Amino acid sequence: MSIWLALQSLAGLTAVCAAVYIATLLGFETQQVSTLQEKEAQVRHILSEASIAADPDALRHALDDVLVGHRDLSLTLQRADGALLYGRPVTTATGTTSTRLRVFTADLTGAPKGVLTAELALNTLSDRILLRRIGVTLALAALIGAALVSAGGYVLVRRGLRPMRELVEQTRRLTADTLHRRFDGSAQPDELEPLVAQFNDLLARLQRAYEQSEAFNADVAHELNTPLSNLITGTELALRRIRSEQELRDLLGENLEELQRMSSIVQDMLFLSRADCGALARRTPVPSLAALVGKIAEYHETIFAERDLRLSIDGDAQGEFDQPLIERAVSNLLSNAAQYAEHGSLVRVEIAERNDRVNLQVTNQGTPIAREQLPRLFDRFYRIDDSRAGATRHHGLGLAIVAAIARMHDGSATAHSNDDQIMVTVDLG
Fold first, then answer.
1. Residue 31: how many other CB atoms lie within 10 Å
2. E strands, 262-399, where?
């Protein structure tokens, strides 16, 4: 920036000095032409005066008066036959080519009459010397001025960028372990305060994302560690002694259950990863959501029967949805409701269409959930209490998948709880 400022200053001052030099040069030339024109007029006037032109001494004296005070001006008058009538050379610096000439003819009215050829010569050497001095002075002024402006600009730029250098230094000290730190904007100018605030907001978001990523990795490791430990332990025990065919079948069956659980976790994680990357629902017409809920409810008849639960489906809506995803979301909601509903209670599914949006709400009776825990129900691997029924059989991704499916349909998922009811609502766009 300092170099650009120096170059711009030099270019600007050079342009100004060049303009001043050209204006001075044109002024000198105009003045020289004006001087010659003025002297020409005076010479013509003298030659037109019969009383003066008739007397050679008077004529010479009058012409000398014209040139008084102009040592750089010469005049010669020649008759038509080449005879010199008057001549006065330049008394200063002779032999120079810096001369401006003006040649004209004039009539001599005195005796003898005739046509004269007059030559006025103006020595411009002094003007050229002065012009050269002005040029040198302007060039030095441009160079010195550019140097001063550049030095001042360098100091101002350094001083102006000092807050930015402090921010850069603060940024350099940030690492993955220090995302909790925030930029100190107390020494920053008012113009940079919005930038500092935006950086701090960005750091806050990065910190939350990093903490969620760390927690997610820990949860994944924890969830996969249990079935892996079971597989390793069961295999080690099986290898300690010779097993019968039936015992080996039972062992392989237990291992297969653990492997299926691990596969389910991995598949759910891959689905959530695709949803986080912006995957959208592939919409096709769905004529009746109530019929779709009824079909999915058939897959949960066993657990509903075991817990003596009843199911009601109220309302209906149609629209364009990704039917396999909606079926998966409804299945997770019904499974979750049946898991935590009170024995012998009613699980109610309500479907409503408002302002081109569809709300699907599943309500079950159960233990109230604290208000601060409700938003976290849609976090991955989040469990309110590991001691709750079924906590060990489910890996805590069901409602996270429901929220992801809602987002893929330009919607959202929310949860509410009162004294004896838990309501999960899915908004679909």
1. 13
2. 284-286, 310-314, 319-321, 346-354, 357-365
Q: If DSSP codes are grouped into helix, strand and coil, which group holds residue 243?
A: coil
Give per-residue pLDDT as tens, 218-228. Answer: 777 877 888 88
SS3 390: coil
pTM > 0.85: no
At residue 121, the 3 state secondary structure works out as: strand
> Are 317 and 289 contacting, i.e. CB atoms less than 8 angstroms apart?
yes
Residue type, 118: A
Sign of CA dihedral 299, 304, 310, 314: negative
Cα distances from 215 to residues 26, 46, 209, 381, 408, in angstroms, run 82, 112, 10, 10, 24
Helices (H), 177-282: 193-239, 245-276
Q: What is the pLDDT of residues 277-335, one digit of tens each?
A: 788 899 999 999 999 999 999 999 999 999 999 999 999 999 999 999 999 999 999 99
Question: Whose CA is closest to 426, among 338, 358, 356?
Answer: 358
